[in-house]
Write a structure and sequence with these properties.
Largest sheet: 6 strands, mixed, barrel
Helix content: 10-25%
Number of helices: 3
Structural class: alpha+beta
Distance between the termini: 56 Å
Strand order of the largest sheet: 2-6-3-5-4-7
CATH class of one domain: Mainly Beta
CATH topology of one domain: Barwin-like endoglucanases
Strand content: 25-35%
Shape: globular
Amino acid sequence: MRRLTAITMALLLCPMLLEASPQSSHRSETHPVTTRARTHRTVQFGVASWYGRALRGRKTASGTPYDERELTAAHRTLPLGTSVKVTNLKNGRSVVLKVTDRGPWVRTRLIDVSRAAADILGFRHKGVTRVKVSVIHRPASEPASSDPAAQSSGNQVTSSPR
């Protein structure tokens, strides 16, 4: 009877132990992981790449011309103007960048950084690296634009409480 009770208890406790166990430190290369802390700051893990000469001078999503010598980045979802700290997980180097463009459009990548940022992070010659992206500052709500194209885009930027 005691053996049956012990087995029953183990079966009942097993799902609870699995839920309480810490997550694996292995993160998928293809799926960035996002967590939101109580301070409403976002931390993401994924793959970074860099973009450079081919886009020099072209307008970014923020309207400014792209300059590979500036510390900027492209991100699919963070509001334009957001400041992020990008840390190379292979060597520990980090840099603060401003999100000025949309991308990357390669699905397995989290963020595109400028050539200057890739140099600081130490991965320009490799092309890609695993990174941690931490939001430092989100821009405040932008005033209503008189540009009809901006109004029809539906991309409203709102700030989150700190």
